[in-house]
Amino acid sequence: MAEKPFNVLFLCTGNSARSIMAEAIMNRVGAGRFKAYSAGSMPTGVVNPRALALLKAQNYLTGCVRSKSWEEFSGSDAPRFDFVFTVCDNAASEVCPIWPGQPMTAHWGVPDPAAVEGGEAQIGVAFANAYRMLNNRISLFVNLPLASLDRLSLQRRLDAIGEISDRPASSH
To answer: Where in the sequence numbering do the catalytic residues fall?
Structure first.
């Protein structure tokens, strides 16, 4: 009998880039063990075109991706979340709704690529870096021995993942 997948919610203020990328990454990397969602406290209502282009270039299915409010997940028919991660500093400092079922939470802050100003190359690097950071953290998370960790140990691991320095490797 197949186990029920863990439900994971990624939160950001605008739900247009980082949380959208995290949702897509988790749904791929989680390989059926995790079901990801994303939302924002003040959603823009539009997925950032650069985030969408990056996901398409990495062969993600993007047809169902959309910017939405976290209120969409507050009703009685909403999924019960096992994990809730904030990926932007604004959402981490906001008062989040109380999620039923006491999900594990952590802050995995990632610099906002949509806020980067400059040429196409600089902006492209910012989106690539955000994607890489999220992919690294999510990959670490899905490989945790969840069944053998108590809540306190798991919380420490989740917090540690959010503190990992994701500087690009220097080329030699």
So the answer is: 12, 88, 96
Which neighbouring-strand residues pair with 83?
8, 104
Q: Is residue 126 part of a domain?
A: yes
Domain count, the chain: 1
Rounded-to-integer distance, Cα 91 and Cα 13, Å: 5
CB 161 within 8 A of CB 141: yes
CA gap 78, 165 in Å, rounded: 34
The CATH number linked to 43 is: 3.40.50.2300
- Cα–Cα distance, 164 to 146 (Å, whole number): 19
Higher pLDDT residue, 64 or 172? 64
pTM for the model stands at: 0.91
- Tell me the average pLDDT of the chain: 89
Instruction: Note whether residue 171 is domain-resident.
Output: no
The answer to whether residue 45 sits within a structural domain is yes
pLDDT per position as a tens digit, 64-88? 899 999 999 988 889 999 999 999 8
Domain that holds residue 84: 6-161
